[in-house]
Here is the input.
Amino acid sequence: MIYHFAPVQGHTDAPYRHFHAHNYGAETNYYTPFIRLEKGELRTRDLKDLSSHLNEGTHLVPQIIFRNPEELTTLVGILKKNGASEIDLNMGCPFPLQTGHGRGAATVADAELAKAVAEIIEGNPEIDFSAKIRLGLDRPDEWRNLIHVLNRIKLTHIAVHPRVARQQYSGELHLDQFAAILQESSNPVVFNGEIRTPEDIDNILDRFPGIAGIMIGRGLLARPSLVKEYLSGNEWSRERRVAEMIRFHRDLLDYYSASLCGESQIISKIKPFWEYAEEEIGRKPWKAIKKASNIAKYHSAVASIEI
Ligand SMILES: Cc1cc2nc3c(=O)[nH]c(=O)nc-3n(C[C@H](O)[C@H](O)[C@H](O)COP(=O)(O)O)c2cc1C
Here is the structure.
């Protein structure tokens, strides 16, 4: 069973991944948030994230988002030049800015594009490809357009978030559709969605014993020890979880303080650390952190977290 830390734009960048691995033992595979082309080239910040020395020692897979075979070919070429041996294809992003341009979840129902994607993958046998998909844009059975094409090629896995793009990140998970993908995919399938506790991991493994892995996004941001706890067989007390989270936060804040210029930059980079942790740290400190307008207020908000 392989555990994957899902890419989350604005959160899981190189410093976060590095200090997460440092504090929690690199038990997961990590992904870059999606990398895309802008005026035919990688954005500077994507390139910086991809080539950061902080990536050393982690299993990092660059993820790309594309709308046509040309974009895909260009991105694969650039990543190869940067030494990538694995690439994850984002075929699930629900943001209208991406789907509106034919990227992300909009690619799921595009059978023609899928064929071209398969050819590009076959033309790059030195790269291990994986795909991250949704069920579709609007209907939860749109993946059927894609699966027979994916079945003809070898992927390390397909990670499935069993929602449609219209649902964004909430609402019912279509577990019946997930079960159908698991049955019909000839590639290993990874489950992704709403895993928050060790019990949730157990429930998914009980229900879908055939999966090859579990991918967790917000659940790991809220409780960074989740996979480590699960693998150790012992659920940690809330006190221990929060104490370790504060240590992880300290490392990240020290790094930002040393590498960024000015309070406002530091605050805007570090605040998202707590975004999904309201339940874990309590509503009052969580709100105080959100409201903090300078570093002194931020420090006192973090200090108000009860352990
Ligand atoms: C703010 C935000 C940004 C995200 N950015 C990406 C991304 O860059 N690439 C990607 O494949 N998924 C992205 N996702 C989706 C997550 O990887 C994941 O599939 C989703 O949150 C569902 O899993 P979870 O319930 O474990 O969080 C993003 C999700 C959120 C909420």
